Amino acid sequence: MRKFIVGNWKMNGTSNDLDEIAAISAVAQLYTLVDSALCVPATLITRAVTAVGAFPIGGQDCHMQRAGAHMGCVSADMLSDAGAVLTIIGHSERRAAQHERDADIRAKAEAAKAAGLQAILCVGETLEEREAGKALDIVLGQVAHSLPEAAAGAWLSVAYEPVWAIGTGRVAEPSDVADMHAAIRAALVARYGPEGEKIRILYGGSMNGDNAAQLLAVPNVDGGLIGGASLTAAKFQPILVAAQACGE
Ligand SMILES: O=C(CO)COP(=O)(O)O
Q: Lower CB count within 10 Å: N or C terminus of the chain?
């Protein structure tokens, strides 16, 4: 399976950063054995699409409804209309700060699919849950309840992002990543049959140029969802190099 390397800019970026977005897309397109994309704030999508040409630009959330009285929210159709081809759903920062529940996330994934977007659906345990020995149960529960019934196929990726590894510089041990990704793969295949093999499982949480090769070599790690190290082409490039090497 081709590796999928996705940058997540979170709440970073204004029109001052369009040159950097163009630089990231130019670098990413050098690595022809890798699928890559950049998820930017909704305010930047249209201008980012203009700046990058054919490179995939995504959003960072979407509402579960197609339209209506939902102040400040952005629908999947609006993302698509702005030029996005994918969106992230269920990120732990939204599960925590916006109180998103598995049922909300499942509905958002369905809305993304209906709008023709690819979706990256995030799961992951907190430090407290890991220390209590509950990491596997929590993550498999999120997989069971936040993935839609019609999840089969390559339109969907799952991102395993241990909450304690996000933005902390603390990376999960490759053996723990291997165990978690194998358990997620088994759950996907049990639920969707052979189609479950086509769903890419990304790792996210302090992935950078120093650790990407090791993480991407772990079985069932089909790519990465990258926050801080996606903000500049210089930091993103070594991750793409590591992903390209996996395909050679
Ligand atoms: O949350 C993340 C990507 O969605 C990971 O962020 P960092 O790479 O900054 O740890």
A: C
